[in-house]
Specification:
Largest interface: A-B, 29 and 21 residues
CATH architecture of the largest domain in chain B: Orthogonal Bundle
CATH class of the largest domain in chain B: Mainly Alpha
Strand order of the largest sheet of chain B: 1-2
Number of helices of chain B: 13
Shape of chain A: globular
Oligomer: heterodimer
CATH class of the domain at 302-323 and 338-496 in chain A: Alpha Beta
Structural class of chain A: alpha/beta
Distance between the termini of chain A: 45 Å
Strand content of chain B: under 5%
Strand order of the largest sheet of chain A: 6-7-8-3-9-10
Largest sheet of chain A: 6 strands, mixed
CATH superfamily of the domain at 302-323 and 338-496 in chain A: P-loop containing nucleotide triphosphate hydrolases
Largest sheet of chain B: 2 strands, antiparallel
CATH superfamily of the largest domain in chain B: MetI-like
CATH topology of the domain at 302-323 and 338-496 in chain A: Rossmann fold
CATH architecture of the domain at 302-323 and 338-496 in chain A: 3-Layer(aba) Sandwich
Helix content of chain A: 25-40%
Distance between the termini of chain B: 14 Å
Chain lengths: 530, 332
């Protein structure tokens, strides 16, 4: 009997069919990845395996068998025994997935006591044991910490520890590394791999990241609109995809080894930063977010700024636009000292959902910079906004629509149109595509490149994703702890990184090819022991 | 816990500064308002000379800031008052003498405060039990018939004035059923048992009014928490619904309930006039209303300050509890 056996699964949320006739099996100890873009129904499938749709109003049809339990017909009690006991789930956002008020160790112990007859003490000991197992240093002490006292990677490890507590036969991981930095992501994926080898548990990995799938599983199931597009061994599906959609998905994935046309940027410097420094807080709590950073940006070129969370890249981006005042250092724009916000230097923000006012139409949002410059004639404003909307690939008639009517990619286009409205010469893009699906990512990056060519813009592209930065930039600066550790033309930095940290970052990027993934894993081990 | 001690200290200093600001505002607002205080204090039949004499006696001729200086001095160091023939010493903290009775305001307050504190403390326990309990139940049974009944009952509770609830309770419990005697204040120090029995109905009437707000707040915060990701985690790990609601969701309601409770306790100490009047409890609220009616400014100012003191104290305690309950709170 298979560990997971799903036949003809259909899940409806009201009129929306999220999963449409999906069937697959997972054998004991095997690993399968459900890969798809947002809205493809992959997380819905993961929830269905544990019967989590029960009582939510969703209609579930078909048969779902997990570790010998018929999830559709099981009693609430049987379902509770399955959840966490035989099949455990690791969720995407490790901060919100743990109760903020209780110590991590207590939460693991609580889950353990649901499934095992154990005293409080024994359960607590078990919690420390599994925390230790997932590589949390000083687990006895750390088990008393609350989730906010953990780093992102430690939280995800703690969630995995919770999953391990009852020795499940199946681990369901729903985007387990999406919220993590690339080096931490690599550590977590390596941990999952080791645990699987040691415990022989099955793994169902849900991810939008083909690279993450290639790193971790034997089989891949590509989903789109709730249906299976392609299903097979990982080497086959990712190496020689049969379906056009799979090929499209793979083509959109930014690659580290992709060649990039080198632009012939003129030597004219538009923006220059010299010794930029930014300190937050005072006295003992003072924290230097950006420390002595000097950069030059030339006309028509893209400067990538890459780094992990907390490296100071967003702070630097904000200082370049004038949203934050530097504690020390100078900014020069076109030969003149530059302070405060100017129309010529604009910004595109990371989250296209929260960076647009939900109560105003997108046209009104785009018109803001025009009005700020003193344009009062409604007709002219509408005309210009219409042009801008067309310019970023939307429709002039979208003026009166509201942000929620647009998809993530479209919203980011609106954000770009708003930045363009001020006729800027420099646009600082702060993680412009990290909230988007890979295919949408590719479209937005293409749009930015096109705008740059046609308008002669200089772009600063801030991102944590090394592959995206490579694809989008001419030159790249690698940041760590507020400092630029390496800077140079993209080819040089990526092909022959001189700084050990850059090497570590590059080794952590998931590879699309499972064999390359294995090589990288070995490389990471070497770097870790070196 | 060094940072924590520092936080408590800083919070206490902040409370002191707030109180000083309140005292300035209260003093200025009451003493600078137009109206001849001396005339009112002396009575309608006083001759101009008599009024003038009263004004001198009450130092009403001095500039406002001088009088406020005296007032502060009295608060910190105590003061001597001459009342015609004899000299009365008013030891710190001195809030002055009543215009009407020449009694020390502080003594007046000391006499009334135990009544108000007894009323509010007992009512608070009841409204927390009733309110949070009802809120929990309705969050747990959300969307079902029992929840709608509970919501209806609590809504009716808030919508009914305290004197209606109190009267009904008195008529039924004391009049018809004769379960309790008609309430009459007995000091806690005199007879704890009689104290509790006599205050039971006032507690209940006050608590029933306040409980609805707590029920709604608890329900709303619990439902909010129940929709959060970490609740999904525990469901996905087979943790029972009782533990999810009682342990994880309830914890989320803790902070807002503390905050609301602080405000309610603070304001009920001086604001439960209706309850005090209805049950004949000689508390701060009643006395304050009387003092306002006869323009006995020292009493009004003193009582407002004491009430302010309790509001500030309750909020400071709430902040500290808040920080204890949620370690993510940044201590500043």
């Amino acid at each position: 009997m298979s560990l997971v056996d799903v036949t003809g699964l259909r899940v409806d949320f009201g009129a929306l069919r999220a999963v449409d006739g999906l069937s697959f099996r997972l054998e004991e100890g095997a690993a399968l990845a459900l890969v798809g873009e947002s809205g493809s129904g992959k997380s819905t499938v993961a929830s269905a395996l544990l019967g989590l749709h029960r009582g939510t109003g969703a209609r579930v049809e078909g048969t779902v068998e997990v570790a010998g339990t018929d999830v559709q017909h099981a009693s609430d009690e049987e379902l509770r025994r399955l959840r966490g006991g035989r099949a455990a789930m690791v969720f995407q956002d490790p901060l919100s997935s743990l109760d903020p008020y209780y110590a991590v160790g207590d939460q693991i112990a609580e889950v353990y006591r649901v499934h095992a007859r154990a005293s409080r003490r024994a359960a607590r000991a078990r919690a420390v044991e599994v925390l230790n197992r997932v590589g949390i240093p000083d687990a006895v002490r750390r088990s008393r910490f609350r989730p906010h006292e953990f780093s992102g990677g430690m939280r995800q490890r703690a969630l995995i520890a919770m999953a391990l507590a009852c020795e499940p036969r199946l681990l369901i991981a729903d985007e387990p590394t999406t919220a993590l930095d690339v080096t931490v992501q690599a550590q977590v994926l390596d941990l999952l791999q080791t645990l699987r080898e040691e415990t022989g548990m099955g793994l169902l990995l849900v991810t939008h990241d083909v690279g993450v799938a290639a790193e971790s599983v034997d089989e891949v199931l590509v989903m789109r609109h709730g249906k299976a597009v392609e299903h097979g061994p990982v080497t086959g599906v990712l190496g020689a995809p049969a379906e056009p959609y799979t090929r499209e998905l793979l083509a959109a994935v930014p690659r580290l080894d992709a060649p990039r046309k080198t632009s012939t940027a003129p030597e004219e410097v538009v923006l220059e930063a010299d010794g930029l420094r930014r300190v937050f807080g005072r006295g003992k709590r003072a924290f230097t977010a950006v420390d002595d950073v000097s950069l030059t940006l030339r006309r028509g070129e893209t400067l990538g700024i890459v780094g992990e969370s907390g490296s100071g890249k967003t702070t630097l981006g904000r200082m370049l636009v004038g949203l934050l005042e530097p504690t020390a250092g100078t900014l020069t724009f076109e030969g003149r000292p530059h302070a405060g916000v100017t129309p010529a230097v604009q910004m595109v923000f990371q989250d296209p959902v929260s960076s647009l006012n939900p109560r105003r139409s997108v046209g009104e949002s785009i018109a803001d910079p025009l009005r700020a410059r003193g344009e009062r004639q409604e007709g002219r404003i509408r005309e210009r906004v219409g042009e801008l909307l067309v310019r970023v690939g939307l429709d002039a008639a979208h003026y009166d629509r509201y942000p929620h009517e647009f998809s993530g990619g479209q919203r980011q286009r609106v954000g770009i149109a708003r930045a363009l409205a001020a006729d800027p010469r420099v646009i600082v893009c702060d993680e412009p595509v990290s909230a988007l699906d890979v295919t949408t990512q590719a479209h937005v990056v293409d749009l930015l490149a096109e705008l740059q060519r046609e308008l002669g813009l200089a772009l600063v592209f801030v991102a944590h994703d090394l592959a995206v930065v490579r694809q989008a930039s001419d030159r790249v600066a690698v940041m760590r702890r507020g400092r630029v550790v390496e800077e140079g033309p993209v080819e040089d930095v990526y092909e022959s990184p001189s700084d050990p940290y850059t090497r570590q970052l590059l080794a952590a990027v998931p590879a699309l090819d499972p064999e390359a993934a294995e090589r990288r894993r070995v490389q990471r081990e070497e770097l870790a022991t070196a | 816990m060094n940072g924590f001690t520092g936080f408590v200290l800083r919070r206490a200093v902040g409370a002191g500064v707030t109180l000083l600001a309140i005292s300035v505002i209260v003093y200025v607002v009451f003493y600078a308002t137009p109206g001849n205080v001396a005339q009112i204090t002396c009575g309608p039949r006083c001759s101009p000379e008599q009024v003038h004499q009263v004004a001198r006696q009450l130092n009403l001729d001095d500039p406002l800031f001088v009088r406020f200086g005296h007032f502060l001095q009295g608060l910190v160091a105590g003061q001597d008052y001459s009342t015609g023939t004899s000299v009365q010493h008013c030891s710190a903290p001195c809030l002055g003498l009543s215009y009407q009775s020449d009694q020390q305001v502080m003594q007046l307050i000391w006499a009334k405060l135990p009544v108000s504190l007894s009323l509010v403390a007992g009512a608070m326990v009841l409204w927390l039990i009733l309110g949070v309990g009802t809120g929990m139940l309705s969050a747990w049974r959300r969307g079902r018939f029992s929840e709608r009944v509970l919501t209806g009952v609590t809504l009716a509770g808030t919508a009914t004035p305290v004197f209606v609830i109190g009267l009904i309770l008195m008529i039924v419990v004391c009049g018809e059923l004769r379960l309790l005697p008609f309430p009459q204040y007995v000091a806690l120090t005199d007879d704890p048992e009689q104290w509790a029995w006599n205050l039971l109905l006032p507690w209940l009437s006050l608590a029933l009014i306040e409980a609805a707000a707590f029920a709604r707040l608890t329900r709303a915060s619990m439902l909010e928490t129940l929709a959060e990701d970490h609740i999904r985690t525990f469901r996905a790990y087979g943790v029972g619904e009782r533990s999810i609601v009682g342990r994880h969701a309830l914890r989320g309601a803790f902070a807002p309930v503390i905050a609301l409770n602080a405000n309610n306790v603070g304001s009920a100490i001086g604001g439960a006039v209706l309850t005090e009047t209805l049950f004949g409890l000689p508390g701060i609220g009643q006395e304050l209303v009387h003092a306002v009616n006869v323009v006995d400014l020292p009493v009004v100012v003193g009582m407002v300050l004491v009430i302010g003191f309790f509001v500030v104290l309750a909020n400071a305690v709430a902040d500290v509890l808040y920080a204890v309950a949620d370690r993510r709170v940044v201590l500043t």
